[in-house]
Each structure stands twice: as C-alpha cells, then as structure tokens.
Write a structure and sequence with these properties.
Blueprint: E1 2-6, H1 16-31, E2 36-41, E3 54-58, H2 66-72, H3 74-80, E4 85-88, E5 103-107, H4 111-114, H5 121-137, E6 140-143, H6 146-156, E7 163-165, H7 179-190, E8 198-202, H8 211-219, H9 223-228, E9 230-234, H10 242-254, E10 257-261, H11 268-273, E11 277-280, H12 289-296, E12 301-304, H13 307-313, E13 317-320, H14 325-336, H15 339-352, H16 358-373
C-alpha cells in the first residue's frame, strides 16, 4: 500500500508532535511493514529516509503557508503519486482529496475548543474552522490518549468505533541514572552547578503550560529550600509569556529559577535523570510526553490533577489542582522531605511506562491503515 503522509511537523520546531511522528516513522522502518510511505511538506523536513520505501516530496509555494499548501497542493500531489491512503498526521486533512482515496487523521488535543485563549490567533482560527470538516472526511480518527478520545467523542458527537488511541512512546535514552553523574554530564553545556540539585519542568513556554502557578509556588517555598534546590524550565520560547517572565524576575535574580530554552535530544535524558523531582502543572494536554519521559528516567512526578495526567501516571505520581500554587508548594516540600515516598514513586513510574513504546504504537497504527485502506 502507498501511504501519503502530511509531514509538516517534521519541518517545524522540535516539539512533541514532531517527536511523535518521527519516532513512528522510524518504527515503521524497523517493523519492515512492506508499505511505501510518501512524506509531503511545503518545507524541507528533518527526516533521513531509512530505505527506498520512504520518499519525501517537498513542494514550496509562493506564500509558503502550510495550511494553504495542504489544501491547495497536497491533493494534487497525492493523486499524481497514486497513493492508496492519506494520513493527516497534524490535525487536518486536505479537504479536496478525492473521495476515492481513504483518509485517516491524528488529533493531538482540543486546545482550540477548551483553551483558545492560550493560542496564537492564526493557529486558533485555522484549527477551529478546518478541524470539524477534517473529522467528517476521515474514515478513522486517531488520538493519543483515552482522555483525548473521550473529548473528541463528546465535542463532535463521534462514535467510539471511529476513534483509535495510538499513544506516544518513550524514546531511547530515558533511563534511570545516578543523579550526580547526570548533572555532571550536562552542567558545562547548560551552565548548571553540578553540585546543586534541581526541580525540573519541560515544555514550550506558553500559557497552557501554566508556569506562572509554578513560579508562585516556588516563590512561596522556605528560603532554605529555594537556596538548596533550583527550578529549571526546559523548553523553547513560545508565546504570550511576558507576564510569566515579569513574575519570575525576582526568582531569576535570586538564582533559584533558570529558563534553559530548548534543550537538545542528546542532553534531555541526562537533564531528566539529574532532577530531584519533575513538575508538570499544565492546564490541559492531549497526552503529556514529559510525564512518561520523567517516569522512565526514575524521577518522582508531581502533575496537574487533570484526566490525562491521571491516565498516564496512575499511582506513580502525586496530583495537585493545576492553579493551586499553595498546594504545589506544600506538595513539593512534603515530597522532598520523604525519601521513602520518592523511592516508591520511582519504582512505580518505571513499571507504569513499560507499555509506552513506539513499536507498539506503530503496530497499532499500521493495523488502522490496513483496516481503512484494505
């Protein structure tokens, strides 16, 4: 079967969706599924084709706007290549794709419907108005968690038998390590004090990640705790973050808080492994890849008390109301003072993430392709 793929995430920033798509493609190659995959994009993609079964088609346009390319040019390219099935791997389908070509689409979250105020206006408008017809066109809809499946079914009235959960997995390298050794490994490159333990959060710096609550929580910690532990924020600069940086300024001056910016894939596993605790205060997620990366690294997790974090962490994490800064501060102090509980959480986390593999997810996705594309 020839499968066409909207590969635009591979041309974008190194964030969750790009990781998800790239790792699934690598798993397809390792599984030797026998299909041919044609990756379409309006810009060069970060993907080294592992075999001749993977081809890349780049079609630049005058405005070089991804959504316009998807709607205006991708259908023609798909027809010219004679594809048997199209996978919309980034929320949307090319709506002018001939009906004779079956199509599936992956939905990562419903931020435009639940937290539109946290988005850039252009992204909000595109997704808000093109997502519903994409869902109507798709023969099968993939989501990345059971929580997302529930949301999609409820918001759009879609039958559960049209929805398949294909979760992310944990990439190679996220394993427990000696924390001191891990800190020493990245201290020079990231400008860290290898002798000072830290709390960690990972994600693009944008409003939905709810970092202002974390800043307020850390600011209210006892001074002795703040002087012993720093808070590191690892993630590319996002949008609507000026208020966060204003509120964080005192902690940055004090040396308690560091914004590291984007951290490379090579350094990120070491950064996780060196953390004393992982904090995930997000208001809403379709999944939460950092949570499973932290658990795989043997790091105790404190996460937002939202359905998807409870789903993926289960009994391996402590859950706190997302915006309750006092409760976050109290939980941090209590957990830092309880080594036995930390050890239990580490053990439970490693067990919990064992089922999250990209190989397993790739097999499930290939089953969907076979069912829909024949």
């Amino acid at each position: 079967m020839r499968i066409g793929i909207d590969a635009r995430p591979l041309a974008g920033p190194l964030a969750g969706i790009r990781t998800y798509l790239g790792e699934l493609l690598k798993a397809f190659a390792q599984l030797n599924a026998g299909h041919e995959f044609i990756l379409y994009s309006h810009r060069p993609v970060a993907f080294d084709a592992p075999s001749s079964r993977f081809q890349v088609r780049i079609r630049r346009t005058v405005m070089n706007v991804g959504t316009l390319w998807l709607q205006l040019h991708a259908p023609r390219q798909a027809v010219e290549d004679g594809i048997d099935l199209f996978w919309g791997a980034h929320f949307l389908l090319p709506l002018r794709l001939p009906r004779r070509i079956p199509a599936v689409v992956t939905i990562y979250d419903l931020v435009p419907f639940f937290f539109p105020q946290t988005m850039q206006l252009s992204n909000y408008l595109v997704t808000r108005f093109l997502l519903p017809p994409s869902l109507a066109r798709a023969q099968r809809i993939m989501v990345i968690s059971e929580s997302a499946a529930t949301d999609v079914g409820r918001v759009f009235g879609i039958s559960p038998d049209r929805i398949t959960v294909v979760t992310p997995g944990v990439r190679a390298g996220f394993v427990p390590r000696d924390p001191v050794e891990a800190r020493q490994q990245v201290a020079g490159r990231l400008g860290l004090d290898s002798q000072r333990p830290y709390l960690l959060t990972v994600g693009t710096v944008e409003p939905r990640k709810n970092l202002r609550t974390l800043v307020r929580a850390v600011a209210s910690l006892p001074r002795a705790t703040r002087m012993r532990f720093s808070l590191l924020v690892a993630g590319a600069p996002g949008w609507k973050s000026s208020g966060l940086h204003d509120e964080a300024r005192a902690l940055v001056r004090e040396g308690t808080l560091r914004f590291l910016g984007f951290v490379s894939h090579d350094d990120l596993p070491w950064l996780y492994a060196g953390a004393s605790m992982f904090l995930f205060p997000s208001l809403y997620e379709g999944f939460g890849i950092p949570v499973i990366e932290a658990m795989a690294s043997g790091v105790p997790v404190v996460g937002s008390d939202i359905p998807v974090v409870r789903e993926i962490a289960r009994n391996a994490a402590v859950f706190v109301a997302p915006t309750a800064a006092d409760a976050w501060a109290r939980t941090i102090v209590e957990l830092l003072d309880d080594p036995a509980r930390q050890a239990t959480m580490r053990e439970r986390g490693i067990v919990q993430v064992a089922d999250y593999t990209f190989e397993q997810s790739a097999r499930r996705l290939l089953d969907v392709f076979a069912a829909v594309g024949g």
